[in-house]
Amino acid sequence: MADKKLSLHLDFHSGLPIYTQIVNQIQSQLVNKMLKPGDQLPTVRALAQELRVNFNTVARAYRILDEARIISTQQGRGTYIIEVPPPEISEKLRYESLTALTHRFISEAFRLGFSEREVVQMVRDSLKSWKEANEEDNE
Amino acid sequence: MADKKLSLHLDFHSGLPIYTQIVNQIQSQLVNKMLKPGDQLPTVRALAQELRVNFNTVARAYRILDEARIISTQQGRGTYIIEVPPPEISEKLRYESLTALTHRFISEAFRLGFSEREVVQMVRDSLKSWKEANEEDNE
DNA sequence: CGAATATTGTACTAATTGTATCATTGTAAC
DNA sequence: GTTACAATGATACAATTAGTACAATATTCG
To answer: From B89's CA, which of A11, A84, B9, B114 has a CA 20 to 30 Å away?
Structure first.
């Protein structure tokens, strides 16, 4: 369940595009903890109806937020706030989490019988294709 | 008793379709020997109930695995891991498994905000300490 | 054995979701 | 006034999951 009411207030005379207002307010609500990682946002159609705008306008806002890695939109499923790590966790905890994650990965890979070289190669390949798939991200 | 519990863990917000997650995890469990040739999988309805999804979603996953010659689904009988997996399928599965594992690892690391350099470094360190801990030769 | 019933996977359809493409509108620059 | 462009709307589409009816096989029981 996921319907946060997401009360957004649009100003149709402000000169700011609707989709920009939607983007800004969702970002604000995330910062204000009114939205939390993992939360499902209303569907494009539901939010559009609530705001009395075309659902493509909502979709455009969602697309911008998706490209900014703030939300994850999934065709046929819905739209969710991305689960990002709280920025306030310490460096130490941050590294411990990466260490644990990597350790689990390595053990699993070895359990599958792969050699160190194969593992390293796969990590390289995976990083490479990940970067390629996310080209548009830089600025 | 044929029913392995088949503990699968779905992430409904991960962006991967449910049926894909089911496919991947069954493949993994086969490569990990948690599933063996001849094992019977839960019925589409049983697994669906356990995972709280529609049984057609499970059926879709089973169909994909069936087409990949990994399992054999038999109407009225049940679903079984294929008896003699051709070697090329085993090898293919093994690599697909590592690929999926690595991809999950990379995504998770980036999701936690680590850079490519940090990830690579951590993999190196982890491999190194793993080798030292197991004191084995080679390379 | 044989018929009735239960169990299992299959096929087809529907509903819900986001996506892509183009048309319309409004405003600013020329 | 005309043109150019950005914002929004309309329409058709694709992906995922759910609903319903059915077919094949197994099991039960006379």
So the answer is: B9
